[in-house]
């Protein structure tokens, strides 16, 4: 017995030793696996940084600041009286096919929907040009897009040949979006035939289709019993949250007995409604354009009481319960009442206005370096510069924005400058730069504003590459406060970017430059094309009409850029930026937290 016990003890000890060795081996493998995962994560982060923004040296920072992004705008109002029906141009089937093929190959035009493309094809006019004729001249402003139907054209820049355009090529597409100078010349090398469309016609097509669809959807929503008590403003917000979905013939849209959380409106096609009776599918009815189903799913969890199947191709607009609940409660909430805060504002602003005179403002000069003796420039814009000035009497510093009257008239920006002045005069918010006084002489308009001594967020961002999350959170919070103040006053900002965020002497972030701001009543849309390309919302690019939601889209882009160092949609070519925005595909770096990803995705959806 003792021998057997001894043998068993030895076996047990040996097994324990083997188990310990296996445990040590497993721990070693786990350690090596974690090391490899960490290495892989580091390599992924490094790869993302190499593909995206790099850490800049001081000389490169200066270059980046000089190349800060410029906002763009279409100057002309959209004509209300354009008769789209009578301005169509007849074309053969082969000509239409050639045009549609060319548009399908273009990065930007291929993102338009079928109806928009079809309307553009109808409205293109035909042009014939001889060899040597200049279609586009470098440095001039253009307003037309061209498609080559036949012949060859030469593209040159500063006298250098760049490429040859032939049948099916598209050029000049940026000009139909906004006023911009042509970056190259295009000259006919042979006799050529072109198809052409002007900016006004293009914008009218886009906006008329969008307005018509919104009016149509508004009418459809008003027939839904569940939504009857909602205001037009709330219905408009629901429309903004809806998405277009398409179904093929015989595709089941909703199935009887399944959980339902989505409401559908039929835009095109027919839907067959069936219900199981005694084990057999019984046809209840057919639904067509304007009819809807699933509305109860928006207010409570339900099981579908019937099956809805597409008859032929069907297009619907839909919204799910989660989005619906996010949209409607927001409108019923009261914003924080700032009235008491507004009544306690100090009279510092009034005191400053009372003593400021244009003749008393003295430029502050550079004391050393290559610009020694010249006025300190705080910023450059499309209409003038912002200089640092002071007064001998009080010794306070101000930022003086000098705007050329001649350029204002040439660019037809009078109403925007007047509105910017009006907004800044009326605003009193700790997160928006203050306007202390405004003057004019025969050549310029001057706006004397608060001097933000901390500089641009843009410059700080380029110095460090990207911000830590806590810094990005603080900057974003300041912008949210500014937006809350503006939106409460029914003012859209429309040009958010790091270049328009300044740090004051206390380190708080302030919103500057209100050149694109606009007053808009709740529930309304505006169809202006304006903003900085990387920060534009899809509805602005597509001329679908936009509202305060465009500011929140740009907020999502800002959060991304603060955390990454570059915006999510970027390219050296504006049309590629617009195409990427319309695609809506965002690539998040591995180091970005889940909270930030979720916020950005919700703002940019």
UniProtKB/TrEMBL annotation:
Give the positions the UniProt entry annotates as the active site: 495 (proton acceptor)
In terms of Gene3D superfamilies, this protein maps to: Jelly Rolls (2.60.120.10), Phosphorylase Kinase, domain 1 (3.30.200.20), Transferase(Phosphotransferase) domain 1 (1.10.510.10)
- Sequence ranges assigned to domain Cyclic nucleotide-binding in this UniProt record: 108-223, 226-328
ATP-binding found in the keyword field = yes
Q: Which UniProt keywords apply?
A: ATP-binding, cGMP, cGMP-binding, Coiled coil, Kinase, Nucleotide-binding, Serine/threonine-protein kinase, Transferase
The Protein kinase domain is annotated at 372-605
Q: Which residues bind ATP?
A: 378-386, 401
Tell me which stretches of the chain form a coiled coil: 5-46
The record, for Pfam families, names:
cNMP_binding, Pkinase
MF (Gene Ontology): ATP binding; cGMP binding; cGMP-dependent protein kinase activity
- PROSITE patterns in UniProt: CNMP_BINDING_1, CNMP_BINDING_2, CNMP_BINDING_3, PROTEIN_KINASE_ATP, PROTEIN_KINASE_DOM, PROTEIN_KINASE_ST
Q: Which CDD domains match?
A: CAP_ED
Record protein name field? Protein kinase cGMP-dependent 3
| Lineage start | Eukaryota, Metazoa, Chordata, Craniata, Vertebrata
